[in-house]
Amino acid sequence: MDQDKRTLMSEMYNSTLKDIKEGEIVKGLIVTITNKEVVVDIGFKSEGFVPIDEFRDREELKEDQQIDVFIESIEDEDGRLVLSRTKAEKMKGWQRINDDVNEGDVVEGRVLKQVKGGYIVDIDSVEAFLPLSLSSFRGVSMNEIMGNRYKFQVAKMNKQRRNLILSRRDVVQKEREVVKAKLWEELEKGQKRVGVVKGITDFGAFIDLGGVDGLLHITDMSWSRISHPSEVVAIGDKIDVLILDFDKENSKVSLGLKQIIPNPWSDVYDRYPPGSKIKGKIVNIMPYGVFVEIDKGIEGLLHSSEISWQKKMINPQEMFKVGDMIDVQIINVDKDSKRISLSMKQLEANPWLEAEKNLSVGSKVQGKVRGFTDYGAFIELESNLEGMIHVSDMSWTRKVSHPQDILKKGQTVEVIILGVDGENRKITLGLKQLTPNPWPEISQKYPIGVEVEAEVILNSNFGVFVKLEDDVEALVYSSEIDKAQAAALKPGDKLKVRVIKVDVEQMKIGVSTRLS
Predict the structure, then answer these.
(1) C-alpha dihedral (225, 231, 232, 238), degrees to nearest 10
(2) What is the pTM of this model?
(3) Class of domain 351-434
């Protein structure tokens, strides 16, 4: 030990021998550092011991370092001088707080740990309590909170009991007001700023600009059509926005997102003239058509009527799926309304222009049953055109109430072309015309006055339909049958009838239950 050190130790030794007593803070020199303790010489007859756990920065400890320690016990049960580094720091901290800090002052501290109802904060080596209700840590992770330093306001202080209660909420509020005031001064129309999405509604999203909230309306999110703001932004997203307008007095800010990039509709007439062919991606499917993105921010509508030359109604949801790439033709552009009409069928030759030439009346063709209405069935022909068989052209003899009684969907049938109207895209087909008209023979087989046994098919309010033989039906007029008898009849009942009318042109037979 050099002369200066010996002199210092001698002075400390002499002074402490006179004045040392428990409960005081004294200076000492670190003599030895172990895994459990730090041995400190305070100039007393024996060296003191401080638990190593009381030093936060153990790596910075070194021998001959001078530190302040608190005398806990001059002589414990083992005869050792017990010192405390933590209590020394706390006492010094409280002395500084007593001298410099009052309620309402702002102090800086480090969050040590979370306890029931709040947090413990280190303020200049003094442990203070931060209630959860005053913490303003909502939405902040524990990893981010623990060990970090923040500013706090002294909410309540009892110097005698050494009790300190803090509030971060008041500090945050004041900081926000300062930031908010500064932000209002900086705002300018056309200014580009960074914001964080804090809320989403059906009509737009609220963006935190750093103290001031702005509204990004759905119409200002994208140049292309969107159904909901969540298609463009999500809560927590950090995005660039443009200041469109603001009203400081009413605290309103209007923001734009699409305005950051050039308006793709500005030169739409030059880029997409009618008649041009282009490839696009399906982005939305509706019952009436599909929306196709032909460029970033530009969508067009492919109406269901422009999908195929076929006259039948097409369900786009059965033909396409979102993400499909398709070829389309531009048929109309409206820049002001931001609408583009597209077509798929225009890419193909119009088969209706040659329909009258290729499908001659009276010719037989094959087709597939594609659908029904109450009055007929739609048949897809091999030429990719569609015709219809009316119920009156399905059978010579049967009364067809429902087309499904004769045909099934998906069934391949042979039909006769009855008529072709290319201008109105209409093809009339016949099924019964494949066989000769049997009514001349039927009229001879069932002359007026002949009596036959019939089977009830349908009982209606204007008469009873009966079957004379397979596919030959007749009507018992309501005036030709007793009401009580008619009411009691049901399908399958047998009935004796007399033919009273045969109309070959109308293909009808009238019968009566009144026999001769």
Answers:
(1) 170
(2) 0.43
(3) mainly beta
Q: Fill in the DSSP letter of residue 348.
A: S
Note the CATH number of domain 101-172: 2.40.50.140
Q: What angle do CA 72, 75, 80 make, to 5 degrees?
A: 95
Q: Output the pLDDT for position 326.
A: 93
Phi then psi dihedrals of residue 303, to 5 deg = -70, 150
Residues in Cβ contact with 102 at an 8 Å cutoff, skipping those fewer than 6 apart: 154, 157
Pick the CATH number of 187-260 from 2.60.120.330, 3.40.50.960, 2.40.50.140, 2.60.40.1930: 2.40.50.140
Per DSSP bridges, beta strands 386-390 and 426-430 are parallel
The residue assigned the tokens 């803090």 is 166
Any idea which fold 441-512 has? Answer: OB fold (Dihydrolipoamide Acetyltransferase, E2P) (2.40.50)
pLDDT at 311: 59
What is d(CA 213, CA 218) in angstroms, rounded to the nearest whole number? 16
For residue 214, which of 189, 228, 231, 10 has the smallest C-alpha distance? 189
CA distance 212 to 217: 16
Question: What are the tokens at 77?
Answer: 């049960």
Separate counts of helices (H) and strands (E) for the chain: 9, 30
- Distance, CA of 10 to CA of 5 (rounded, Å): 8
Sequence-ordered strand ranges (E) for 25-177: 25-33, 37-41, 48-51, 66-73, 81-84, 106-115, 118-123, 126-131, 149-158, 163-167
> For residue 503, what are its two tokens?
């109309």
d(CA 96, CA 192): 47
3-state secondary structure of 19: helix
Q: Can you read off the two tokens belonging to residue 274?
A: 């009618």
How far apart (Å, rounded) are the C-alpha atoms in residues 30 and 46? 13
Q: How many CA atoms lie within 13 A of 496 on its CB side?
A: 4
Q: Which residues of 63-88 are buried (b: 16+ CB within 10 A; e: fewer)?
A: eeeebebbbbebeeeeeebbbbbbbb
pLDDT tens-digit series, residues 385-431? 888 999 989 988 887 888 998 899 989 999 999 998 877 888 899 99
Residues pairing with 459 in the sheet: 464
What secondary structure does DSSP assign to 467-495, as a single string?
EEETTEEEEEEGGGS-HHHHHH--TT-EE
CATH architecture classification, 268-347: Beta Barrel (2.40)
pLDDT digit string, tens, across residues 132-184: 888 888 777 888 888 888 888 888 877 666 778 888 888 888 878 888 888 88
